[in-house]
Amino acid sequence: MYKGAEQKVVQLAAAFANVASTKQCSFYDLARLASVSSEDGVHLDEKQHQKISDALEAIIREF
């Protein structure tokens, strides 16, 4: 069902980064921080969600 999803996520992140750059917005590629679950190759498990939460908390505190 999710065949090729990992590559699609990489391409989507690149597209989002490009749009953010042209709009002078911040973009954080969370795929560089967290990895997908081995169960389905798309979704994140609890540990990966926590990694993202910790990283976003640090970014928010900087503002």
UniProtKB/TrEMBL annotation:
InterPro entries per UniProt: SGNH_hydro_sf
Molecular function terms from GO: hydrolase activity, acting on ester bonds
Name this protein carries in UniProt: SGNH hydrolase-type esterase domain-containing protein
